[in-house]
Amino acid sequence: AFVLRISPSGDDKVSVALAENQLIIGWSKAEGLLESSLSWVTFRSIISTTYYSKADSLRKAGAASGHMWRFIRAMSVGDLVVVPHGAKFYVAEIQSDASYDSALISDDTAYRRNVVWLNDKKPIKREFAKSALISRMKIQGTSADATDLLADIKECLDVAVKNEKPTFQADLQARLVIKLD
Asked: Which of 48, 110, 119, 130 could form a disulfide with 104 if both were Cys (CB 3.0 to 4.6 A apart)?
């Protein structure tokens, strides 16, 4: 499972992603990243040359490359992806490998993955999530691994379908009981 912000170039593209049943990430001018034979160094070099050629270090290129590597290489068909959006979030299940559409470079949305949006494409209020998932959705970067929160994500989907609201108090109480046992 993963968390992914869909705002390439700082532009909110969640409505586009929902309408087109896709996940979207930026760095579209960095062509050729889908080539499976690329090493990490070459992969990062493409992003560095394309976006950060005047940077003093590889820090920004490394961070961007990490997000792109996760999107292209680490995510797999069947994985769940949480997409934070304001006070709510969406959950999608990945249906395809990453693809690249050069016609979408100007929108910075060329890199994509087909998905099925769960919960009938309806947003889920953050308050339905447990504290660990809420915390993970506050990531500063574009993406994060959330495999350790897979059970929480599935539970959150179940709670959203039933329209039940787990309270912070109930979550805290459950954690305390586990710690005391």
From this structure: 110
pTM here is 0.89
Residues in the chain: 181
Q: Express each pLDDT in 127-177 by its tens digit.
A: 889 999 999 999 989 999 999 999 999 999 988 877 765 545 566 667 677
Token output for 48:
């560095």
Half-sphere exposure of 166 (CA within 13 A, CB side): 23
Distances (CA, A) of 127 to 5, 68, 105, 124: 18, 29, 36, 8
C-alpha–C-alpha distance, residues 3 and 18, integer Å: 16
Rg (CA), the chain: 18
Do the beta carbons of residue 65 and residue 49 sit within 8 Å? no
User: 66, 53 in Cβ contact below 8 A?
Assistant: no
Q: Over the chain, what HEC string results?
A: CEEECCCHHHCCCHHHHHHHCEEEECCCCCCCCCCCCCCHHHHHHHHHHHHCCCCCCCHHHHHHHHHHHHHHHHCCCCCEEEEEECCEEEEEEECCCCEECHHHHHHCCCEEEEEEECHHHCCEEHHHCCHHHHHHCCCCCCEEECHHHHHHHHHHHHHHHHCCCCCHHHHHHHHHHHHHC
